[in-house]
Write a structure and sequence with these properties.
The chain is built from 20 helices and 14 strands. It folds into three domains: 39-149 and 191-351, Rossmann fold (3-Layer(aba) Sandwich); 151-188, no CATH class; 375-535, Glucose Oxidase, domain 1, CATH 3.50.30.80. The two termini are 32 Å apart. The chain has helices spanning 9-12, 17-27, 58-71, 94-110, 125-136, 162-172, 178-188, 200-210, 226-244, 249-252, 255-267, 273-285, 291-300, 315-320, 323-330, 347-351, 411-417, 454-457, 518-526, 538-546; strands spanning 41-46, 75-80, 115-120, 140-144, 151-153, 156-158, 375-380, 383-390, 400-408, 430-433, 466-468, 480-482, 502-506, 511-515. The protein is an alpha/beta fold. 55% of the residues are buried. A hairpin with a 2-residue loop joins strand 7 and strand 8 (383-390). It is globular, with a radius of gyration of 24 Å.
Length: 562
């Protein structure tokens, strides 16, 4: 069924001078007049950049999308936006996620576009595009770039971030030579594409599919695999029909779809960053979503994807085992199966015929790797508005722990002290770092994976409880409490913790507490003085004046739909 008049016809379907000018300018690119004859204009929102190795192949992916759009009777026009390269950008890509979301939204809104294909990959590019598309609310489909090839060093496969951090610890204490470390550098990242573990990039592209915004199986095809381009062409074909059906993001990304995405996130052991991004997407749609929803879904969802950093395998293995459709079929009783997706079919119709080819990679719901989901939400006197922890990547013996804190007031202090051979810590110490949140850092960087102190690594201690108001890379691991809210820099209780204070972590009870006398707690809290702002101009100032806390998604308050 075809909808009414195409939006693009408002630009060049009139008989006035302005439409004449727009048609003439478009024909200057070599197009014939046929492109204006009631063809849906499909914008290809490309986050390609040579400063973003995860997305550097997206120009080729865009050409495949165009083939599909032309074949289905559409008119494809590619446009760029800011690209957020996780490894390169300082102080953090999270500072710029909202800027990219605004770029995407305004580029869609301002141009003669009837539908949009979102080309993403690296961590923040996927949520930023979903946020922008949700706000613009014209028909949209997501085409991720896919994970890179598995890393390789000698006879072992390496996962981005996860294995390199473990190997770097060996290098720090002299158990790997300079030559070996150089070999690892050359074999860690062997192709374009995003990280090849269940980090934030793999998580968010998988959740775009779980939300119903991508074709089934699209998220996990490896970047160099020819099926990545075939999937892109199919997506280009499909978006033309999505326009005629007027199937907008607001009809797909419903409250039930967000609950599906959270459920899938728990089943795949996804990145803790997914919590912040899904909260932000919900805010753009005007859907009430809170941390408690994540924890209640986690308690009922088994973790079944045996992929690093929580498991053993890599994203290539996950795709060959059946990928996300196999996971979704396995947990279908926990999903809202009858809701609509960008295919025009329901979730159940999309995945009911999926097959798992390797049970060691994707377990059955009846024989999970863990009875609960990957991420848990903690609250307590240290985090009254919540904090998160990936329990599937933590050390079981530390999930209930009391220990004395060693406190770093900021990231620079931590970096200066962490390799000190006389750092006064032991296996029971709780490392706590402040002023690394949205305001404190600023930008909410991935500093939360505090490196293990070298003095403990030399004693073969590989994990201690670590707490901060920062995020951490989804490729990271360990017993790490993150996203503590409110953050220290705005007066959250984290700011009063001192070295020697007792900290209690109780994951089964979902608690994180600072164990000091109540009168001392209140005395310290009343002494808070806000630090001076880190930016006084430009986008940084806008960020500090309007960013919300982690438990609200760290979007700008004026971009949340009322």
């Amino acid at each position: 069924m075809r909808a009414g008049k195409l939006r693009s016809q408002e630009w060049w379907g009139q008989s006035d001078y302005e439409s004449f000018t727009r048609r003439a300018w478009m024909r200057s690119e070599g197009f014939t007049s046929e492109v204006f004859q009631n063809k849906p204009v499909i914008g290809i929102c490309n986050s390609w950049s040579e400063l973003n190795n995860c997305n550097v192949h997206l120009r080729t992916v865009a050409e495949a999308v165009k083939r599909g759009v032309w074949a289905a009777g559409g008119f494809p026009l590619e446009f760029p936006t800011i690209s957020l390269g996780e490894v390169f950008m300082r102080p953090t890509t999270m500072l710029y996620r909202n800027l990219m979301a605004m770029d995407v939204e305004e580029s869609i809104r301002a141009n003669p576009i009837d539908g949009v294909v979102l080309l993403c990959g690296c961590d923040k590019t996927t949520p930023a595009q979903l946020m922008g598309a949700a706000s613009a609310d014209i028909p949209a489909i997501v085409v991720p770039g896919g994970p890179m090839l598995s890393g390789q060093w000698r006879d072992r496969q390496l996962g981005s971030g996860t294995d390199s951090r473990k190997l770097f610890d060996l290098f720090r204490i002299g158990r790997l030579s300079e030559e070996e470390w150089c070999e690892i550098e050359g074999g860690m990242s062997r192709s374009a594409g995003h990280c090849t573990v269940m980090g934030t990039a793999s998580t968010m592209t998988s959740l775009a599919e779980a939300l119903g915004m991508a074709l089934p199986g699209c998220a996990n095809v490896p970047a160099p695999d020819s099926r990545r381009l075939a999937m892109a062409e199919l997506s280009g074909r499909r978006i033309v029909d999505v326009v005629w059906e007027d199937l907008r993001p607001s009809r797909i990304m419903t409250r039930q779809a967000l609950e599906n995405a959270i459920t899938v996130d728990m089943a795949i052991g996804g990145s803790t960053n997914a919590v912040v991004h899904l909260l932000a997407i919900a805010g753009r749609l005007g859907i009430e979503l809170e941390l408690g929803d994540f924890d209640s879904i986690s308690r009922r969802t088994p973790y079944i994807a045996n992929v690093k950093p929580s498991g053993e395998y890599l994203m290539e293995d996950f795709y060959y085992a059946g990928g996300l459709p196999a996971v979704m079929k396995e947990i279908l009783p926990l999903l809202h199966g009858d809701i609509l997706t960008v295919t025009g079919k329901t979730v159940r119709e999309n995945v009911e015929n999926a097959v798992c080819h390797r049970r060691e990679v994707i377990r059955s719901a009846g024989e999970p790797l863990h009875s609960e989901g990957g991420t848990v939400v903690l609250r307590g006197s240290l985090a009254p508005d919540g904090a998160v922890l990936k329990q599937t990547a933590a050390s079981p013996h530390l999930l209930q722990h009391r220990g004395k804190a060693y406190v770093f007031e900021n990231y620079d202090q931590m970096r200066a002290q962490i390799d000190s051979d006389d750092l006064p810590v032991d296996r029971s110490t709780v490392l706590l770092m402040k002023n690394c949140g949205p305001h404190g850092a600023p930008g909410f960087p991935e500093w939360g994976h505090i490196p293990m102190p070298r003095v403990l690594l030399k004693q073969d201690v590989n994990d201690v409880v670590r707490i901060s108001d920062a995020r951490m890379s989804g490729t990271s691991f360990g017993t790490v409490v993150l996203h503590v809210a409110p953050e220290a820099a705005v007066g959250g209780p984290l700011h009063i913790a001192r070295t020697g204070d007792e900290i209690e972590l109780d994951v089964p009870a979902r608690r994180i507490d600072l164990r000091i006398p109540p009168d001392e707690f209140e005395r310290r809290m009343t002494a808070f003085e806000a630090p001076p702002p880190k930016y006084d101009r430009g986008y940084g100032r806008l960020f500090l004046e309007h960013v919300t806390q982690a438990n609200l998604g760290c979007d700008f308050d004026f971009l949340r739909k009322k």
